[in-house]
Amino acid sequence: MIDLLSEVAQKVKDGVMAVVKTADDVLTSLRGVVKEQVVGSLRDVGDVATSSLEVLVDVVDGAITGANEVGSSLTQVVKETVTGAVMGASEAGGDVITAVGQVVRGAVKGASDVGGDVGGAAVSAVEEAVSTAGRLGASTADATREAAVGAIKAADAIGSEAGSSVRKALLSSASLPKDIIEAAIKGSEK
After folding, report:
1. Are 100 and 86 in contact (CB under 8 A)?
2. pLDDT digits (tens, 9 = 90+) for 129-171
3. Helix, strand, or coil here: 175?
4. How many domains, the chain?
5. How far is CA 75 from CA 46, 96, 98, 115, 125, in A?
6. Cβ atoms of residues 125 and 104 within 8 Å
7. How many helices and strands in the chain, by DSSP H and E?
8. pTM for the predicted model, two decimal places
């Protein structure tokens, strides 16, 4: 399964780079490419069960890495990638709330892989994932919780400094409900 996931990440990275290099509107193109890659990857995996949504981490990570290599703003890349990935997961029949957590994990991992600000990327990813989930009819409170947990898990896997940075960034965001963020942080420390 790990080889399949790294293959997916490389395929997405290559696909994103090919499209984004030739696009007039890089960010709009990025959203569409990511959405298509998510739908295709989930269909390739075959079963859109919760466990197969783990492929979203690699899809998002690969997309951010690819878009970063063509010189796009990390914040905008994260936002467009997250939107495309959540929309793609929904279109493929995946659970939007579960997808949100996986997509945000991939965004934080991708930001770290390119040497970006993981705290800033986490906030952008959580905000965009929640907004997209809400537009798709999902509970924004549930999406916020799942997105925050995904960001924290990804950051903790990177290291204690990244974990601390993400927690502080999420808590200091004026647009995220502090009570839900605090509960996600408390739950991650168990």
Report:
1. yes
2. 999 999 999 999 999 999 999 999 999 999 999 999 999 999 9
3. coil
4. 1
5. 32, 22, 22, 13, 9
6. yes
7. 9, 0
8. 0.87
